[in-house]
Amino acid sequence: MKKLFLTLILCVLSGAVFAQLNVTAVSSKDGYFVGKGSYDMSFIPGLSITPNAAIVQSNGKNDMYQLGLGVAAKVPLWDALTVGVKGGFTPKANNYSNYYYEGYGRINLESFLFHMVELDSLTLGFGVRQTEHKFYQPDDHNVSETDMYVSLGVMRDGFDGSVTFSKSLNISGDKTVPAAWLDIPNFTAVTNGFLDYAVGADLGYTYKIVRPYVNYTFLKTYNLPETDNLALGITAKVGIVVFNAAVEWFDVSNRRDARRTFYSVNGGVSF
């Protein structure tokens, strides 16, 4: 199934002027594996279309898949603002399915402030996502979830950092059975549960072709203990090829102090 997932990503064809392919994966013991891929296509300057796919495997459970599509564009006459929409669905597996749609925006504040702040980049991001969960056992029921997030990113003299805050605005329906698909913000990992809130921070430094970095995310899910998740990694870029390797410690079982060690790899190419 892993080969099928990678083949699906590589078989996406387009007539884009610019394109970027990214594939990332994380694995650990007990047969746990998550793979994600995206193909960012720019047909005209300022407009991009991004199909994406993901797979989650774990011993004792059926494989789960997610397919999605995103469209983003710069606002005419104001290049500092980019707006976009995303959507996707998870077909039925393990008595669960979902679909989601999202609207988001990014503002280049450094440009917006007429370069009064001496930074290479200062970016504000924000978005709202609506997810409709479907459960098939022990009885059929739906849960509707609305989440928001806001992030701030900065770059200066080779250093880059960001902070992100995510929060559930509303969860309606029977929440006694946790959602079977919940992305850990800023990680490849997928866990279960309904998001309460999450706070993440990322710090990196680029020296020539390499960027070592550290990433931390504090995640609280509804009716479950909070978890903290840490990653140490390094990214190398040579020409059009980008490669990343990391060691990550996070919890996919929603048990306090139950972090496990995971190994992740990421590859990308622009053409």
Report on this model:
The chain is mainly beta. It has two helices and 16 strands. A 14-stranded antiparallel beta barrel has the order 1-2-3-4-5-6-7-8-9-12-13-14-15-16. A two-stranded antiparallel ribbon has the order 10-11. The protein starts with a helix and ends with a strand. 21% of the residues are buried.
Number of domains: 1
Low-confidence stretches: none
Tell me what the CATH architecture is.
Answer: Beta Barrel
CATH top level assignment: Mainly Beta
Tell me roughly what share of residues is in helical segments.
Answer: under 10%
State mean pLDDT (0 to 100 scale). 87
* Percentage of residues in DSSP E strands: over 45%
Number of helices: 2
Shape: globular
What is the topological layout?
Layout: H1 2-10, E1 18-27, E2 33-44, E3 47-57, E4 64-75, E5 78-93, E6 96-108, H2 109-112, E7 121-135, E8 141-156, E9 159-173, E10 182-183, E11 190-191, E12 195-205, E13 210-221, E14 227-238, E15 241-250, E16 260-270
Antiparallel strand pairs: 1-2, 1-16, 2-3, 3-4, 4-5, 5-6, 6-7, 7-8, 8-9, 9-12, 10-11, 12-13, 13-14, 14-15, 15-16
Question: Summary?
Answer:
This protein is mainly β. The protein is built from two helices and 16 strands. The model has no long low-confidence stretch (mean pLDDT 87).
How would you describe this structure in keywords?
single chain; 271 residues; mainly beta; Porin; 14-stranded antiparallel beta barrel; two-stranded antiparallel sheet; globular
